[in-house]
Amino acid sequence: MKKLFLIILLPIVAFCQSAVDELVNPKDLIPDIVIDLRYSTKDHKFLNLPQGDMPLPKFYATNECLILSSAAVRLKTAQDSLRKIRTHNSQSYPQGIGIKIWDGYRPRAVQWLFWEIFPNSTYIADPSSGSKHNRGGAIDLTLVDLATGQELPMPTLFDDFSDQASHSYTNLPPDILANRTLLKTVMNYAGFSEYEAEWWHYEIPYASSYPLLDFQVK
Length: 218
Ligand SMILES: [Zn+2]
Known about the structure:
- The chain is 30% helix and 16% strand.
- It is of the alpha+beta class.
- The longest helix is centred in the N-terminal third of the chain and has 20 residues, at 2-21.
- Mean pLDDT is 88; it is low at 1-18.
C-alpha cells in the first residue's frame, strides 16, 4: 500500500518541481515587456569603466532573456499593474507604464568573468557560491513609457556601482524618487524583494535554493 502511494505521489512531485524550476522567456507571457539585455551589447556601463580604458566585451550571445517561470508569473502581475497607470508625476501615459529588462538569467561562466574584473561582493556575487542571476531568480529592470519606449528617469544608469544606486540614497529630485518608489512598490506587490545597494535588482523568494546554471542562450 505504501509502495502504491509513492508510485502515485512521485510523478506529482516531479511535475511540481519542473514547473517552478523551468526557465522561460518572459516575452511569451508578457508580450509588451521590453527586453534590452545590456550584456549582449557593448552598450553597458559595467563597473563604471571609462570608455577607452578597457574594451567592453559582449558577455551574452543574444538578446533573448530567460528567467524562472515563477519569476515570469510575478513579473506579469507587476506589468499588469503598471499598464493601468495613466498619470504619474503629473505626466500622462496613454498606454500605461511598463518594464524593461536589462538582465535575467546569467551563465555562471559570465559570473566568473565579472568577478575577475571586479571582485566586490556588494555588487558582484562571488561565483564560487553563485549569483541569483545564475539561477534565473533575479532580474535587473527599469520602467518605460509603453507608448514611446522611453525610460523613466531613475537615480543612476544601470550598473552604476555607487552610493547613488542605493535605495537609501535620497538626495535626488522628487520625480526620480517617485519613479524608484513606484518600481519598488509594484515589484514588492508582485512578490519580489529589492536589493538595497542596487535600485534595479529584484529577486524571487528563496532564489538561492534554485540550481546554478551555466549555458549560453543562443
Ligand atoms: Zn542584478
